[in-house]
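Hello Y.,

Per our agreement to keep a running log of every chain we model this quarter, I'm adding this entry. I've kept the format consistent with earlier entries: sequence first, then predicted structure.
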Amino acid sequence: MTTVTQMKCACESCLCVVDTDKAVEKDGQYYCSEACANGHPDGSGCGHQGCTCHA
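Predicted structure for the entry above:
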């Protein structure tokens, strides 16, 4: 049996891959940042270099 330790951020427009033990978990999904987990309430992105998510 294999354990998943990394997955793509659950935010659709985000390109980030996160370690499940360091991710922000919300409603059973894993996000790379609070901004992604909260749906980008202020229109801000996740802040990670090379990623342009914001919606």
